[in-house]
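Renewal narrative, Specific Aim 1. Our central claim is that a sequence can be written position by position from structural information alone. The example that follows is taken directly from our test logs and has not been curated for this report. It begins with the structure tokens describing the chain, in the order in which they were read.
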């Protein structure tokens, strides 16, 4: 598996706001917000369900990772996906840093990835 998720009991926009707040509680900021639904409409004239990717970053942990392996930025930030399902429910999914950073063969990265995973699981659990 390369991710883990949860379903929220609130609407799409509120799910995004709650996710951002929960990320902040764990020391993450959101560097990027990609509105895939709007992009697909603008570029391909496709109407789709709400689908937003948040690029989350914990500066302290990112600094440690970049210090250990400068090219690790290719695998950052941690993507968090908020999507509306066909039944109207909302799923919030998280990239699993252990799976992704497992590609990096450097001492300390595995432990660091575990720390990031624990924080993202706390975010998931708080939603």
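The sequence written for that structure reads:
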């Amino acid at each position: 598996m390369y991710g883990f998720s949860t379903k929220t009991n609130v609407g799409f926009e509120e799910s995004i706001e709650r996710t951002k707040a929960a990320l902040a509680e764990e020391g993450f900021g959101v560097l990027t917000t990609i509105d895939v639904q709007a992009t697909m409409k603008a570029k391909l004239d496709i109407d789709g369900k709400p689908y937003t990717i948040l690029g989350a970053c914990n500066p302290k942990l990112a600094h440690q990772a970049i210090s250990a392996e400068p090219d690790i930025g290719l695998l950052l930030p941690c993507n968090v996906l908020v999507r509306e399902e066909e039944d109207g429910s909302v799923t919030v999914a998280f990239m699993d840093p252990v799976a992704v950073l497992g590609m990096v063969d450097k001492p300390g990265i595995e432990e660091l990835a575990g720390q990031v995973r624990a924080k993202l699981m706390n975010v998931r659990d708080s939603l």
